[in-house]
Design a protein that fits this description.
Layout (H helix, E strand, L loop, with lengths): L1 H19 L3 H7 L1 H4 L3 H16 L1 H8 L12 H16 L4 H13 L8 H13 L2 H5 L8 H11 L1 H11 L5 E5 L4 H8 L2 E3 L3 E4 L15 E3 L6 H6 L6 E5 L5 H7 L4 E6 L2 H14 L5 E5 L11 E7 L14 H4 L2 H5 L1 H14 L1 E11 L8 H10 L2 E3 L20 E2 L12 E7 L2
Parallel strand pairs: 5-6, 5-8, 6-7, 8-9
Antiparallel strand pairs: 1-3, 1-4, 2-3, 9-12, 10-12, 11-12
Helix pairs in contact: 1-2, 1-4, 1-6, 1-7, 4-6, 5-6, 6-7, 6-8, 7-8, 10-11
Length: 426
């Protein structure tokens, strides 16, 4: 029965994400059937839902030959159980008898799916016997058509394919040491130093690692550490972190001893940032402001600004693969306007000669280099090209303009970030 309950929970997680357009993290926090699980069953339910989301497009193409009508015409519970069954068979190496038997058993204990047990049994028997259509589907098929189109247009077919492939891989977990001593942290958590400043760990029990309770480190993708490092804040400087939550970059800046003000317009996200500041001992050392930075201004201009602008987050699909399916082309298209307004507003807050790092966790040109180039063409701001020695491990990501674009095709796994460094000349 526990196997059936795990599959029921996985299907409900998938339904919550796809039918309600919620993130997997939100689904994990709100789905009762998942919350009722423990131990291996809980981990397996999450693994099934995650695998289905990472490979959703190819799974649907793989299921198509076994259906008399389009998958979208099936009821949401039936769709979810078919996708969970396919994920088990084609991605998780689950024994055939368990794929069919336990997934059908899940339908039998789920009132919303009970009428579909015969249909599910028939299709899943074909799933475990034939994966040809799934294997033949290109990696890019894991994305909806609109996403394949805009990434290919913006980055080229090869780079788009590398992003799609990265989405299928389980992301590494990186820690940023509070005191900057990556070697000591690696010894404490039995991890590996990567690029000289981050520590990769294999454990999934993050809160059990040495130094968590004492706030000696925080979880942060290795590419996400670059913007704060490139700002190079100093102890005597005033620094704004705009759109700061959840606070990884804020804590990096605070560790330099600079006078940091963290600004975010979201009350829940700012609350999370404050919690992270408490855990790491930076509470009271960072001023937090709940405000829209387009309208808010500091009392006096500041020395440096880090602007991690709101974006489509398409560079983080490795961690949040559901983003490809719960967003639309219209959702993505709305970001450049706010990004440019925030960049213009941020530059007004800088002292003459002050430095600003603009970044987005999106690889799309219209959210990154196009925004910066447009602003540079209209106001007296200059690029401060990023040098190879400043981005150890990411030297090859610097483009001809001196900006950084960390597409996930390097020697270690990381998110896709666009980063530009600017200087106010007026």
């Amino acid at each position: 029965m526990s196997g059936a309950k795990a599959r029921l929970a996985a299907a409900e997680l998938l339904m919550t994400v796809l039918e309600e357009r919620r993130t997997l993290d939100e689904a994990l926090a709100s789905t009762q059937s998942f919350d009722a699980l423990s131990g291996p069953d809980r981990g397996f339910a999450r693994a099934m839902a995650s695998a289905a989301l990472r490979h959703l497009g190819r799974i649907d193409l793989g299921l198509a030959p076994f259906l008399d009508r389009p998958l979208e015409t099936a009821t949401p519970p039936s769709r979810a159980l078919l996708r969970i069954g396919a994920a088990q068979a084609w991605l998780l190496d689950t024994p055939d008898h368990a794929v069919v038997g336990e997934t059908v058993a899940a339908a039998k204990i789920w009132p919303r799916a009970q009428r579909a047990t015969g249909f599910l049994n028939a299709v899943l028997r074909k799933v475990v016997a034939n994966r040809k259509a799934f294997d033949a589907a290109p990696i890019e098929a894991n994305w909806p058509t609109w996403l394949r189109t805009i990434t290919a247009q913006g980055l080229g077919a090869k780079a788009a394919a590398s992003l799609a492939l990265a989405q299928t891989e389980t992301p590494a977990t990186y820690l940023t040491p509070k005191n900057g001593d990556a070697e000591a942290l690696a010894r404490a958590v039995e991890g590996e130093v990567i690029a000289g400043h981050s520590v990769q760990v294999s454990s999934t029990q993050i809160e059990a690692l040495a130094g968590y309770e004492t706030g000696d480190w925080w979880v942060q993708d290795i590419a996400a550490t670059l913007p704060a490092r490139l700002l190079a804040a100093k102890a005597e400087e005033t620094v704004l972190d705009i759109c700061a939550a959840p606070g990884g970059k804020t804590m990096q800046l605070a560790a330099t001893g600079a006078a940091v003000t963290a600004i975010d317009r979201s009350k829940p996200r700012l609350k999370r940032l404050k919690q992270n500041l408490w855990r790491t001992g930076f509470h009271g050392k960072v001023e937090t402001v709940l405000a829209d930075a387009v309208e808010w201004r500091p009392p006096v201009p500041v020395d440096k600004i880090l602007l991690d602008a709101p974006c489509s987050a398409l560079g983080t699909l490795r961690r949040h693969p559901e983003g490809a399916w719960i967003k639309s082309a219209a959702d993505v298209a709305r970001f450049p306007d706010i990004q440019e307004r925030l960049l213009r507003a941020s530059l007004e807050m800088l002292k003459p000669g002050g430095a600003l790092v603009y970044c987005v966790c999106s690889p799309l040109p219209n959210e990154g280099v196009d925004i910066v180039s447009h602003v540079l063409a209209e106001i007296p701001v200059s690029r401060q090209p990023i040098k190879p020695e400043e981005v150890q491990g990411f030297e090859s990501t610097i483009n001809a303009l001196g900006d950084v674009l960390t597409l996930p095709n390097g020697e270690f796994g990381h998110d896709a970030f666009y980063i530009a460094r600017l200087k106010r000349d007026f």
